[in-house]
Amino acid sequence: MTSHAFHFIILPEHLLCRNCGHEVAKASDLISVPSHHAIYQRNETIMGVEDVLIQYFRNPAGMHFELITTSSAVVDTSSKAYPADTWFDNFTWKMVKCRRCYVHLGWCYEPGENLKAKCRDCEDTNRAITERLRFYGLILDKIIHQEYADSLVMSPKFYGG
Hints:
By secondary structure, the chain is mainly β. The protein is 14% helix and 38% strand.
């Protein structure tokens, strides 16, 4: 009798761009970065991660966004950092977009000069400080859970003769 060994590979679950399906972040990237500028906050389970912080913000133009925060994201980030109108004190923001379809997905937050000055005592370089403290605010309406997206895929019906 032949013995068969099965090996299962568990792939990380991803958040995808809702527009094109590009993988944007993994479940392990989800972090909570609270802001007192949020109009309201709530916690939900996302991709099996419990108590993911979701925050509701309004920008100066009156547009509203629900954000989740991640430690990493596979996105294109604009080069210009803006210190004004930030939702996270002591952080500048840059626009981020999907690498595949270029739709706006949220913002990258990096430490501002005040925060960098406080951290210089730690003997880190500016680059190391930025990389350690950088995070992403992804717009909840612009992303979709991979498992949900997979459930939307339908296979063609088989028509027998």
